[in-house]
Amino acid sequence: MEYIIQIFQKGGPLMYPLLFLGVLAIAFIIERLYSLSFRKTFPVKKIEEVSFFIQENRIAEAITIARNTNSVATNLIAGVLEAYMKGRKSKEELKTAAEEIARAEIPKLEGYVNALGAIAAIAPLLGFLGTVTGMIQVFEALSVEGLGHPEVLSAGISQALITTAFGLSIAIPTLAAYWYFRSKLSFIVSQLENLAIELVYQLTETKEEGK
Question: What's this protein's family per the entry (predicted)?
Fold first, then answer.
């Protein structure tokens, strides 16, 4: 631990904003792992329960259950059902309602994902800035001390290498997490589309049977 602290201190002042970015990245990754879990976004038991009430034509109860569950899938269901109750009962109207709700819900899913992309871009740049400042120190030392003080040169080079390495060590896993969550978002969006299609079909089928 003491060795790590020494390395951190040798990295210079830019290590502190890099550390801050690293902590932020970890926090955002943990939060998105929870928020984008399938259990959180698509609570299967609740969706099945809502579907049962729709089949029984108990739409008001289905809306209540969906709203109380408060997931992206059940929010979509509740919104479409509310549109249905307000008289938007054709397939085209219900599809439009589903698209409107999805446009409102999907940004909530993205949450801190874009922030992870920003951290992955900024961290190596800060590391590179540390490299530049370290090399400036090296050349300043060369101009003042000449080649007679190698310890001054090694300190500047060390700072340059440490900040670059630290920046990359933050950026690489953060970028991997960013693309993982992007892939997961694409999957969730496709599942929402399938859910909307099934819901519209179920509602219009119920309407036809009720005639």
Answer: Belongs to the exbB/tolQ family.
